[in-house]
């Protein structure tokens, strides 16, 4: 679906936002991650525990109007509301971060049995994403890995984080489905939904478990200077 609006950040294409901000990773993503890394890394169930809905809506409104006091607001809110705001941002993108175009390919790639072929396929697909999508994902991926390093305290393993974020970052378009057209047995709606979600979780988990992603150095470095053009 096309964006309903071109102002604000929620529900607006990620490339539109980064171009407007002259950034590589949207400001909202950087701000939420920074605040969570400042005081939420040892919060039990971070990203799994729901934040207060009214706080999340207040932050959404503040980011949408570019409120200069948003960082002050964030510092006074429960960290789960900030985590919830970040998840909501990704959920409301008009197109998921992994894009409608590549979603079926990621679903096929994760199902490959040969590990060498799988890695080649998955990395090629990842590096084929539009620049804003790729850089934002790499930024988020590094953050989620750091969250999982505190698993003994926050109880959020890589698998837990993949379960939370997988269906948010990867969603099939209405026209696409990875399910077989002629399954040997009838598949119920519940079963098909479960298979979709399982695939989405596995794709994200795959990238979380990779030792390193050989993205071009220039693209990784550009994250560090994300206020530049």
TrEMBL record:
InterPro entries reported for this sequence: Abr/Bcr, Rho_GTPase_activation_prot, RhoGAP_dom
Entries under SMART domains matching the protein: RhoGAP
Start and end residues of each Rho-GAP domain: 12-206
Residue ranges of coiled coil: none
Transmembrane segments annotated in the record for this chain: none
Matches recorded under Pfam families: RhoGAP (PF00620)
Name of this chain's protein: Bcr protein
Species this protein is from: Pontoporia blainvillei
Native organism taxonomy: Eukaryota, Metazoa, Chordata, Craniata, Vertebrata
